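Whiteboard transcription, Tuesday session. T.W. wrote the structure tokens on the left side:
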């Protein structure tokens, strides 16, 4: 599923320098996140909820294998009556091997034939222009003969 948001702005809006590129991209990003299903967001972000009152965390408080720092942290959350919600960006390194190269190359050529500007590989949208660069990089790094 591709999630896209567009906002069209007249050039006059930029003349007063109140609207900047950074402002517009942040606005679009917020709108995209608000509208994206949580299942799709979970592919981009790692969501963690730490409730010190769960059975698992209560057990950590009495487990001698739990570090002193983690126990103090859980006790602090508990004493303040807090639940921690944390978000991290999910990053996955692409495995660089001949199989990956061949799969991307096939998808790249299929997208070119269809006149598309992007395609999906391994659940991620790749721009055709970026895929071309990536294939060239694989060719140099893996010394693949084309």
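and on the right, the sequence the group agreed on:
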């Amino acid at each position: 599923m591709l999630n896209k948001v567009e906002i069209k702005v007249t050039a006059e809006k930029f003349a007063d320098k109140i609207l900047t590129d950074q402002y517009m991209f942040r606005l679009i990003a917020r709108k995209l996140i608000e509208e994206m299903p949580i299942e799709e967001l979970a592919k981009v972000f790692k969501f963690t909820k730490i409730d010190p009152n769960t059975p698992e965390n209560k057990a950590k408080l009495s487990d001698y294998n739990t570090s002193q720092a983690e126990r103090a942290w859980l006790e602090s959350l508990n004493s303040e009556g807090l639940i921690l919600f944390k978000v991290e960006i999910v990053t996955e390194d692409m495995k660089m091997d001949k199989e990956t190269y061949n799969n991307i190359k096939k998808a790249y050529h299929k997208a070119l034939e269809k006149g598309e500007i992007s395609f999906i590989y391994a659940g991620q949208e790749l721009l055709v222009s970026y895929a071309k660069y990536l294939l060239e990089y694989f060719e140099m790094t893996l010394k693949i003969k084309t």
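Someone added at the bottom: The two ends are 32 Å apart (CA to CA).
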